[in-house]
Design brief:
nine-stranded mixed β-sheet, alpha+beta, about 625 residues
Amino acid sequence: MVTDGTYRSLDFERNEIRVVTIEMGRPDEMIRCTLEHVSLDQLPRYQALSYVWGDPGNTVPISLNGVVFQVTTNLYRALTRLRLKGLGAIWIDAICINQRDVSERNQQVALMGSIYRRAAGVIIWLGEKSRSSNSAFEVIDQLQSAESPREVAEKVSLKPVYSLLRRRYWQRMWIIQEIALAQDITVSCGDQERGWPAFSAAVQCALQGLSPADSELAGFEPFSNLYHLRRIITEGAAPRKVSLLEALRRSVIAHASDPRDKVFGLLGLVNDGDTYVPRPNYAAPLGNLCLGMALGYISGKRSLDAIVLLGRGIDDDSVARNASPSWLPHWHNLSVGYERQLAYLTGNIRPKHKSPLFAYEVKAAGLSECQAHYRDGILSCRGIYVGTIQTVGYSIWDEARDIASNVRGSDGLRNPYLDNNSTFKAIYTAFLGVASSRVYLTLMARSNDVHFRSSDEAYLTEFMRLWRSSYQPGYSPDIQAWINNHKGFRVHGKTIEQWAHWKSWTKQGINCRRKAAAQRKNTMLADVQRFVAPDLAFMIRNGLRLMLTDRGHIGWAHFRGRPGDLLYVLQGCSVPVILRPASHDTFRLVGDAWIQGFMNGEAIKDDTNNSSWARVDLV
């Protein structure tokens, strides 16, 4: 416990912080530290420690300004090592911030980015060494000094390096800001030390042999995200900041004991923090933080994209518990299930190949800006009704897959695509347009010509093969099962499999297949197979459902979508949304949708006087 007299009040006007100096002493002596106030405005020289607090119930006493002060065991071990170095002034959050003073915590958290950015160096403390960590640093040294690190990585055991990356330190939320902003970094593990450039480059080399899925499964994604985020921020003539959404995308699986820190811990990295959180406040309820961030986003960005894509959504439990509004994002809890949405919001959806067919990004509401208003839990916006979900396929996230009842499609609907060629193109576009661009980049050409361009024959060939073959090389069993189970999905008189057969025997289809057969080693075809497989898997693994609307449009629905849900284009939202009536005049947000024929402002093209927009109240 902290006793009276340990801390003097900081002068917030001078941007004061405290730094601690560790007195030299014998290993068996109590650690003695003194605190000093310095102003960041005067550019003081100090280092900063980046570490894991550890179990708050497992503490060791030290002397701080002559008063007994409890620190966690992990921090005590770090202090023991630091005492041997005689480094001078160090900033350590658990010691330099009065953790019992909420107003001081709020103010110091707001300064955290500046504290780490202005430190002469940041010391990463991974914990005490072990046999495995010693081996890890030996491997890192070999990789760093080798002319061909990749060859070394293929010959040595990388398990010690992987073990080092599983330490709790790498899962901690606050390290993202601490490392990304640091001028200079030393990585310490026991008595082992390495500079960040050599350490991180060697570790990245060790991870290159793993697929993204294997890396995520093994728990190495936090390091990779951190590595790339630091490069984004520090590369270039001057340090730059990223958007809060980009920082959230890079930190979805980081851990924080206080959920507010999932947001507060990123504010020093971002260029739009004031839009979401003008001032960190640990005393405010978590719900107030989420609401303030949502309204700040709407007001500052004039958009509903993040609300629709990150909103909590609806389920039976939330309705029964009268939980927070369906449209309100839980910014502190954007789990891995939001990867697709965060990628879209941050502009990280890019085709990986050079096909000229990828023409433009989607703008379902055209160039309209959001004009939403909030009152008493209701978000009032304006929208255009574009249909109702008629039928859906299964989601790979479904616990029970009733293929017979779910994967049927529908006949007898009006065909908005008019003829067979346009209908096939709509199906083709819905699949490869969503898959190859990782959702929401359209495959449609700029002109209204319904014929495919010759440069994209490889894509068409791959699409036909997907549905005409029972085996797809390069696709995992669950993706193969999804494709096979949806072959019978009916769209305007034919199953998808029948549409693929129909196209393959048209003049264009025959020409495509002949070219593909004659050029099996064609680079373009190889690229298509390499990129379509993981990108189609990305879409399916994000739980999206194939759907048909009551107006005959094909598309994709959020995994919570079900028949009877309403489809709208909302003002200031680039993607269509799925809504479910909550009462006679209010709706709950279900999620987003992709509707072939409504992704580029078609809903408002003939609405020159905005007469089609109607009030939509979300609860």
